[in-house]
Amino acid sequence: MTAKSVLLTAAAVAVLAGVCLLGSLSVRVQATLVAVQQHQVVHADVAVYGSTPGGIMAAVAASRGGANVTLVSATTLIGGMCSSGLGKTDKGDPSVIGGLAHEFFGRVGARYNSTEPVYDFEPHVAEATFHDMLADANVTLVLNQHVTRLVKRDDDPTVIHALQFDQDLTVIAKRFIDASYEGDLLPLANVSFTIGREGQQQYNESLAGFRGRAMGHEFGVAVDPFDAHGNLLPLVSPQPKEKVGDGDGRVQSYNFRLCVTQDKTNRVPFAKPPNYNASAWELARRLFTAAVPPASRLPSGNLGPLPNGKFDMNNDGPISTDFIGGSQDWPTATPKQREIIWQAHKEYTQGLLWFLSQDPALNESVHDAMRNWGLCKDEFEAYDHWPPILYVREGRRMQGDLVFTQSLVERQREHDIGAASIGMGSYNYDMHNAQRYACTNKTACTAFSLPYAWNEGDVEQNPGYHYQIPYGALLPRKSQATNLLVPVAVSASHVGYGTLRMEPQFMIMGQAAGTAAAIGIQVAIPAPVQDINVKTLSKELKAAGQIVTQAPPTPEPHANCTFQDSVDYDHAPWSWPTTSRSQCCGMCAAYDGCVAAVFRYAGSPKNTCWPVLQGHKHKQPHPRTQGIVSCLLQHEN
Prior knowledge:
GO terms for molecular function: 4 iron, 4 sulfur cluster binding; metal ion binding; oxidoreductase activity. By secondary structure, the protein is of the alpha+beta class. It folds into three domains: 3-15 and 252-383, no CATH class; 35-195 and 465-543, FAD/NAD(P)-binding domain; 551-637, no CATH class. Helices cover 23% and strands 16% of the residues. It has 15 helices and 22 strands. Strands 1, 2, 3, 4, 5, 6, 7, 8 and 22 form a nine-stranded mixed beta sheet that branches. A five-stranded antiparallel beta sheet has the order 11-14-10-13-12, with no helix packed on it. Helix 3 (99-111) crosses helix 4 (123-136). Residues 1-35 and 554-637 have low confidence and may be disordered.
């Protein structure tokens, strides 16, 4: 571990004890906690490591598919970030959230007496809902266990036989699912993975690599990053040597998603950290004295409203709850090292809140705004009201035969991936800042005339349409592991992972992994997960409510629709000959309420009509109909 990971305080070397990473071993079977004997061996059809939302949905799906399932959690609190403060769900378009994810949000809604899914919720409600789903599925849940060793079969090094844990537990299973945020089974299984950011050229991604400057959460004023002696201030790194688009090994920043309130009856004041050093906040002091935030909101915090007067506090601004640079060593750190990094993030966040509440250099309006807020007294009561799980936005990323990339998403403008789809997503490419540096090169740093502090790495850009998630993103290379599925640390580039890494998508991918793990599990040695028939998997997912496509259903042709053999309807971008364009536009104009036209795309049967605009002329066409927009406009005008 480098000094950069514990940049703020020397107290980070103290090991955090008794918060969430340590504790007595226990197992929850249905709703009952029972002690586990030492040297316990548990046999299961499917073993899931990681009680993230993706891991829980994988366990539930596998159990509902007929498998005997054991879920092992490294923490006491289950539910990952949904139960640890991320109550303002990054849902994107909820129309693509189906299956178990939709069921989870529906169950949450029922707890709030709503007949509709509820996507913004209190942490304890999420945790209770996850426990209910596991109990209903009869999943065996083991708490407080870190994996230490993975054992493969002697006669086949691609087949995992067992996992061993740090409290003398061994779990033997036929198939395994790594649902940890960090991808902790990958190195143990000798499965290829990567950390950091690819260069633009590796996968032809315009958003990849070193960004030069951030798209958001950037300094709007020139803040001097040097002290009076010319040394860098705390929280600032030297200017990097990379050029825009170059790859590097940097990890985007993590934070805690605090659950806060202004309710005086349920408010715990922000505490001063035991090793608070006011000089460590000189950069923030210069920023907040140069640009005073509005008194109408919590300074340096993005507040997402939750039920019962609570808020999900997230990063907002150039110096906020993201501990930029502090996450670098987390992905490959040991549990003990992660305790140190966890504590450094806590002290950073406590220090920020205390600084904003008390520092005499700040405007009194900033103090007043901060003092109206505090931690929720009725959340995380076993952890001093502090969320026990750090928001690990990205750890290891598996490298399988298929890598989910920005380019892969863009290619979906032209075609549906069919049965290979195991779900859908819609959220932004969302990557947080990876570093804060002193911008001193006047050729590259042109925002201000003097050297200044600059954040780098933030990307917030919407793909522009919904996309499908391929089954291959969950699969390691067949030569490395044949009975392992990975629905969280999936095979993706940094940019591709930026849109996949939201909890609804983790639930969607977790359900797919669990469903796949249960297919053919009854035999002594199930087939490699790479050989599972995707049509069978797709059928089971759709039967369970998973949304795998938004292509319109294939309707029966209207009597007036005739297929023109001379027209190349299948060829992207559907640029048929001018002589037959009018025929295309008029073919099925009266069909099923279509305002203008229909088209046939590759793979659909002849004489198939696809409605493009239904209802009124302002409705957006399906993304794959963009090629006939000009044709549509002829009929719209």
